[in-house]
Amino acid sequence: MFRKRKITPLVGDFVKFTIDQRNKGYIKEVKDRKNELSRPPVANIEQAIIVSSAAEPAFSQLLLDRFLVSVEANQIKPIILISKIDLIPDSQQTFFTKLKKSYEQIGYPTKLVSIFNQKSLSSLCSFIENKVSVIAGQSGVGKSSILNGLDQTLQIETGEISQSLGRGKHTTRHVELIEMCDGLVADTPGFSSLEFTTLEQEDLTDCFPEFKNVKSNCRFRGCLHDKEPHCAVKALAETKDFFQQRYEHYLKFLQEIQSRKPRY
């Protein structure tokens, strides 16, 4: 029935189901979704806890911004978590402290945590309480270790970082909703790249919150903030290095969308 209607039930779906005399259940209807993600495949998420590691694997702001755009495009509230902060030298601590403040200034709750410090992890419960969350990020950043730290009865498998590839191996192989901190968290397989297969170029600006308040000051309506003159977004990018880097990532994503093959 679902195959004919091209519906694939996802973790997080609200459904109607019946139970027969053999105590087996059958899904009869999948309710309308308020959102869904394809990678990871999960639906009806209120917020996404995006985990990036300070080390092992090395931090990538470009990858973090890819996750943020993907989440924003699906109207899901992002929360940024920089893990393994205890593995970096003191000389790099200032960088991540400034990075945290910069993302918070544009509206993203951001935390720096050690995945081996119970007190550090316990502070995450206030984000999870009474919410349906997805925890997502590159393989090896410590997603499963964080969940294990929040609920020590879980014992989710964790893996080592590949020294040759500089990234983690997939230890979570399916999506599952886990009860913790009086909320639900979807543990998901890690992945290392995101493609903007459905996001249109006109909507990309809305995935950068710091651009929303200034784009109305652009000279041209429908400005894509690329080669157009008198662009307020480009002017914002010139104000500090953080906005300049975010703007460069915006241009990279815009180019990817523009070079995407048409879908019929």
Could you characterize what this model shows?
The chain has 264 residues and is of the alpha/beta class. The protein folds into 2 domains: 36-187, Rossmann fold, CATH 3.40.50; 201-258, Ribonucleotide Reductase Protein R1, domain 1, CATH 1.10.40.50. The chain is 30% helix and 20% strand. The chain is built from 9 helices and 12 strands. Strands 7-6-5-8-12-11 form a 6-stranded mixed β-sheet, sandwiched between helices. The two termini are 25 Å apart.
Q: What descriptors fit this protein?
A:
264 residues, alpha/beta, Rossmann fold, Ribonucleotide Reductase Protein R1, domain 1, two-stranded antiparallel sheet, 30% helix, 20% strand
CATH topology of the largest domain: Rossmann fold
What is the oligomer described by this structure?
single chain
CATH top level assignment of the largest domain = Alpha Beta
Q: What general outline do the C-alpha atoms trace? A: flat
CATH architecture annotation name of the largest domain: 3-Layer(aba) Sandwich
Distance between the termini: 25 Å
- Compute the gyration radius: what is it? 20 Å
Helix content: 25-40%
Number of helices: 9
Number of strands: 12
Structural domain count: 2
Give start-end ranges of low-pLDDT stretches: 161-172
State mean pLDDT (0 to 100 scale).
Answer: 85
Main sheet specs: 6 strands, mixed
CATH superfamily of the largest domain: P-loop containing nucleotide triphosphate hydrolases
Strand order of the largest sheet: 7-6-5-8-12-11
User: How large a portion of the residues is in β-strands, by DSSP E?
Assistant: 15-25%
